Amino acid sequence: MSEFGSLAQNNSNQFGEAVALQDQRFMRQALALAEQSLGLASPNPPVGCVIVRDNEVVGQGWHEYSARDHAEVRALAEAGSRARGAAVYVTLEPCVHYGRTPPCASALIAAGVGRVVIGQLDPNPIVSGKGIGELRSVGIEVEHGVLQAEAARIIEPFACHVTTGLPLVVSKVGMSLDGRIAAAGHAGGWITSDEGRVFGQRLRLQLEALLVGVGTVLADDPRLTYRGKILKARPLIIVVLDSRLRTPPSARIFQADQVSHVLIFCRPDAPLERRRDLEARGAEVLPVAHCQTGLDLNHVLRELGDRKVLGLLCEGGSAVHWSFLSANLVDKFFFVIAPIVLGGEHAVPCVGGLGYASADEAPRFRILNSFSVGPDLVLEAYPSYSRSILSPWS
User: Fold this and answer.
1) What is the distance between the alpha carbons of residues 224 and 109, in angstroms, rounded to a whole number?
2) How many Å apart are CA 324 and CA 50, to the nearest integer?
3) Residues labelled as active-site residues
4) 197 with 173: CB under 8 angstroms?
5) Tell me: the pLDDT tens digits for 240-259?
């Protein structure tokens, strides 16, 4: 290669690197807007959009289900005529189908944008790849996969639901260093820190339903509400697994202000009088098949999926965590580990049940992330059978 050719190639590489850095910069702004969409977009995916002209942001938007318009449309409205020839940064591939609103790809074409940079392809089979194809068909330059992992994380529950019809199952447990969630007899206070509990509220913001077993209701009488500072437009659904309907009508789950619904799943032969008492308190009691290991959890997940629950947060207790794990139904597991040791033969383990007969039978996990929340350590772990778009096993 001649000296001139080498210089030209270096200049081209430097220009390409500069464009890539600029794309990441503006995509991070779009991702920050998508974060504002969490808790507001369900049952649609959270999306953020930034429109840039001459290196200046001229329009931005994020999706709120109640506001109907998608992120791209809100950003275009703010940009106005300045959108013509501009670059659009959007966290999720623009839609091409008519739903509650017209297609966003058509809106971008009509606005005359010059370039579209996409974080994550839409996992919805109706859209996937078609939005890019429509934009390119009219000569719009399209780049995709910019900060893809970050963009995929924001739509993780939606991606699972839109491809399987079932919610993403996220288990979370606060435990001691020796894997206990409570001392013998459930004596004592919180195991995790204030910061660890704030992290739990963050998960309740992102997901639509919260599931516990009746054992947790009887032992702790929790409210199971979302108490975060960020607005959650769709109230949290409480789900209780209660084969024999032992949930007391006086339980605090019926006294919460921010709960849209309490669903109690039971055996078909559960006592009719108890069912009537719980229904009088506002609960919806749903009989499901009972198998050797307990209630049919696949039936439970199908019911929640039909109700457009994109993500289910399973907070236990010990026996419930075993039920979901042993049925290969956990998509990811957050272990929030406090720097204490409880010890004792009768302290409650984070996962109870029968246990696996050997290490060879136990499911394998891969830890995608580990981080601190106050003094606690959080491990974000995915089992090998996870259906998540983020699974490190994929």
Assistant:
1) 46
2) 40
3) 72
4) no
5) 999 999 999 999 999 866 55
